[in-house]
Specification:
- By secondary structure, this protein is mostly helical.
- Helices cover 61% and strands 0% of the residues.
- It has 4 helices and no strands.
- Helix 2 packs across helix 3.
- The longest helix has 21 residues.
């Protein structure tokens, strides 16, 4: 499944985003928006995981994907690049 999301690229984007969040917090301004690369990667992870065998017949698959994407965006701040360098696995578990 990892061929549709590059761990290295996603990790680099997350590190840049978290650094921008730290700068914004230090300046007292709003957090920056999540960029398109991060949003696209999270959407692809959630959508492709929904195609696994155990979810094939679900009638509410679109709702499930939407909830997964929302949870990933909420947990985005808790990703610790110092503890692990595999954002694909992190978001897959969420």
């Amino acid at each position: 499944m990892a061929e549709y999301v590059s761990n290295k690229e996603l990790l680099a984007e997350l590190i840049e985003y978290k650094n921008n969040c730290r700068i914004a917090a230090a300046l007292g301004s709003e957090k920056p928006q999540i960029n398109n690369k991060i949003a696209s990667a999270i959407t692809r992870i959630c959508t492709n995981l929904s195609n696994r065998d155990n979810f094939i017949g679900y009638s509410f698959k679109d709702d499930m994907i939407g909830d997964a994407i929302l949870k990933c965006f909420i947990k985005l701040e808790k990703f610790n690049e110092e503890r692990g360098e595999n954002p694909f696995a992190y978001f897959s578990q969420i």
